[in-house]
Structure formats: structure tokens, C-alpha cells
Amino acid sequence: MTTERKYPDMWVDPEDDPRETDHQPRGEREILLDYLKSYRLTFEMKCEGLDAEQLARRSVPPSTMSLLGLIRHLAQVEHDWFVINMGQQDVPRLYRTEEDHDLDFNGAVADPAVVEDAWTSWRREVANSEAFVNRAESLDLSVPYDGGQLELRDVLVHMIEEYARHCGHADLLRECVDGRTGQ
């Protein structure tokens, strides 16, 4: 079922945008989490309504980047930063092997099962990340990393940057798929 929109080439009419609320975040933690939540939602909106072939379409050859690859990549990034780095867990990495460091993009094929796995992984990793942050008493939480220390606030800023960059990629990829442009 398609609903009529004032701006059919956009993701959503501005007055219906779920990212726009009357809530004004206050304080460092709340502001960072609000930005990250908004970018995660933006990314999800840019992928809405597409089938496996459209999600897997590599719109800018010879690049292997696709919306499906981005879903897998962002699941991997969430997992790497919050489970492996901040959580200090020694577990296998998502969508990455010794043989293929770019499996997140290379394995993004037009198969509904691959799409379902990607969304399941992304949603699981976002939930794990949110739970990790909620358990943390402070953004000063610090763990050993690369010969130094890594603070939770640094990871949150990095995640905002990661999503912002990839939402820009998703804008272009989606426009190549069906002409819709972001806001």
C-alpha cells in the first residue's frame, strides 16, 4: 500500500518525519545518543521498501558498495566497536574473514536470505550497542586499545561520523535505484 505524499521523491514528508521531535536533548551523553539514534533511523529509512536485488545493486561500478553492503558493514562496525573493542570480547568478527576482509560488501548478494540476515544482524548489534551504552555509568568508561585507552565518548563520536558518512553514500545509492532523494 502506497500512501500519497506531498513530496513523493523524498523519504517522508517533513511533517511526518519520525526524526523530528519536540525533545531537546541536554548534556553530552543525551546529545551524542540523540544524534546517533537519528542517523541510525535515517539509514534505515534510506533502505526501506527495497527488494533484495535493489538493496544489492552496485550503483557505482567498479565499487562493491551497495545498500545491502552498507547494512552488513554497519552491523560489523557496531559489533567491532561495542562488542570487540569496548566490550573486550574475543569473538569472531562479523562479515570478515582472513580470506576476505571486505566480506560485508563482497557477500552482499541479491538473495532474500542474505537481506534478512543483514537486517537481523544490524538490529541485533544496534540493540547490543544501546544496551552497552545504557549500562555504562559514564562516557569516561575507558578500555585498553591500540597501546592506549579508548573512551566510550570517542566511540560514540566515531559512530556518529560513520553513520553520517554512510548516510551520504546511501543517498546516492538510493537515488540510483529509484530516484528518491534524502532530506
Automatic annotation (TrEMBL):
InterPro entries assigned: DinB/YfiT-like, MST-like
Gene3D superfamilies listed in its UniProt record: dinb family like domain (1.20.120.450)
Pfam families hit by this protein: MST
Region (Disordered): 1-26
Protein name: Mini-circle protein
Organism: Luteipulveratus mongoliensis
